[in-house]
Amino acid sequence: QIQLVESGGGLVQPGQSLRLSCKASGIVLYDMAWYRQAPGKQRELVASIARDGTTHYSDFVQDRFTVARFNAKNGYLQMNSLNAEDTGVYYCKSENRGIDVWGLGTVVTVSS
After folding, report:
1. pLDDT value at position 62?
2. Helix/strand/coil (H, E, C) string of the chain?
């Protein structure tokens, strides 16, 4: 079965950190991207890592996040210095034979 499963979300205070994980089944994480969707807003790209290891970050990340792969089946998004604007559902995305594969998401809430 082809699927991506995110984990690691939770409730943290501003300034704290979280590490989100993405575990793949049935596919290889050649390319991996993290998206997020805040309440009432559209889903947006957070960060991505390509097959050759090239990474890309959206401007709002501002050197706070790191995207990487552990191996062909596991990747993560390290998030530091979180603030309230980072609240949302975070999704892992990859692809299989040209078709996008999405996880169901993990909820991140940043609140004091």
Report:
1. 83
2. CCEEEEECCEEECCCCCEEEEEEEECCCCCCEEEEEECCCCCCEEEEEECCCCCEEECHHHCCCEEEEECCCCEEEEEECCCCHHHCEEEEEEEEECCEEEECCCEEEEECC
Given a cut of 90, whether residue 76 has pLDDT beyond it is yes
Query: How many whole angstroms separate alpha carbon 36 and alpha carbon 66?
Result: 15
Q: Please give the backbone phi and psi of residue 59, each rounded to the nearest 5 degrees, phi first.
A: -60, -35
The span from the CA of 17 to the CA of 14, in Å, is 9
CA dihedral 88, 50, 21, 11 (to 10 degrees): -20
Residues 96-106 pLDDT 10s? 898 999 999 99
Distance CA 33, CA 110 (A): 21
Beta-carbon contacts of 52 under 8 Å, excluding residues fewer than 6 positions away, are none
Q: What is the pLDDT of residue 55?
A: 96
Q: How far apart are CA 94 and CA 34, in angstroms?
A: 9
